[in-house]
Amino acid sequence: MDAVTALPPAAVEIVALSKRYAAGAPPAVDQIDLRIASGSYCCLLGPSGCGKSTTLRMVAGHESVSGGDILLDNRNITNLPAAARGTAMMFQSFALFPHLSALDNVAFSLKMKGVSKTERHKRAGNLLERVAMGHLAERKPGELSGGQQQRVALARALITEPRVLLLDEPLSALDPFLRIQMRAELRRWQKELGLTFIHVTHSQEEAMALADTMVVMNHGLIEQVGSPHQVYNHPASEFVARFMGGHNVLDTPEGLIAVRNDHMQIAPAESTGHPGLAAHVTDVEYQGTYVLMGLRLTGAATERSGVSVLLAEKAFAAHPYAVGDGVRLSWSPADARPLGPGAVRPTGEPPAGPVSRPAPLSALAAMAA
Asked: Residue 160 in contact with residue 151, Cβ under 8 Å?
């Protein structure tokens, strides 16, 4: 394990990266540019089909590249085989060999390299101890829980001494309680190892809990890159605001805006001197410490007429609302985030949703040429 921690973490740079599965077909990944800082935890986030897993597989060398370049610490790895890249993949299914013990699963890649049994078992045993699995080294995968299997899969990925660890939906197969426990462990391991982690997920909550950098993707394009705080509090587009959840997207004379639902203010319709939009209550959900209310703007018929408001339990108890009640809806201008119109796709096609692409990495493009 000392060899892993001794290696400096690597920065990953993606330059105009594209993937098309067939000529004339829409691109699965469309000329994206991205820089992932050395030693950081990066989450690629988006709905199914957005291109996040395809991007990860191209970085891993498990998917061919249609265009663009992938660099690891300024070394172009675009056409290198997976084993020569300095990356390791941890799969969604863990992909452990069912007939091998945890120890032999971890040691398997060293066996393929011709490392002696004594040496490979020593190194594998050290890694299993590191992930608190040393006492179960002789058990087979079928005798381990989901969380234990994940630890074995992590140790197996780390034994190759990668510079970058790639994780493809690593928590999706776990139950909700274990998922929360394991994401805390992933974050701790990443900090202890000092490696660069690139983690694909469709879970907004998971990405916000883990990431230093979130990359929100949609239809093969990058919508927004930033810290969880930046992405959640300053969504760049209507897609990001809606996908991240907890926001209302509203048409105003000043343009399209997003307002967090816990920043919305409501008052009874009969309140005097209370400005705001007329609406009526369509749904009330008690959720413990808060109450989530669904509203519909009066006289509005568009998809943006639906609004949600999050009230603290005490505030709702002081003035409970029922389905059908009329209200006045307002917000502070300081809480309104303007949403950009989005960029045009690189091919000149109209965007599938508002898109904000990073500026071209001209220095990297020159380096990759």
From this structure: no
Q: Name residues of the chain where pLDDT drops below 50.
A: 1-6, 343-369
Using only C-alpha atoms, the chain has a radius of gyration, in whole angstroms, of 24
**Residue 272: per-residue pLDDT:** 65
Residue in the block written with tokens 């945890």:
102
Residue 340's closest CA among 358, 354, 324?
Answer: 354
Give the burial string for 152-181 (b: 16+ CB within 10 Å, else e): bbbbbbbbbebbbbbbbbbbeebeeeebee
User: Which CATH number characterizes residue 229's domain?
Assistant: 3.40.50.300
Q: Summarize pLDDT for 19-36 with one digit per residue, the tens.
A: 999 988 899 999 999 999
Please check whether residues 230 and 169 belong to one and the same domain: yes
Q: Say yes or no: 162 and 75 in one domain.
A: yes
Q: Angle at CA 255, nearest 5°, toward 250 and 256?
A: 35
Q: Is the dihedral of CA 76, 82, 84, 88 positive or negative?
A: positive
Q: Is residue 130 part of a domain?
A: yes
What is residue 67's predicted lDDT score, i.e. its pLDDT? 95
Q: What is the pTM of this model?
A: 0.83
| Statement to judge: residues 55 and 162 lie in one domain | yes
> How wide is the angle at C-alpha 321 spanned by C-alphas 315 and 323, nearest 5°?
150
Domains in the chain: how many in total? 2
Return phi, psi of residue 190, to 5°.
Answer: -60, -40
**CA end-to-end span of the chain, whole Å?**
36
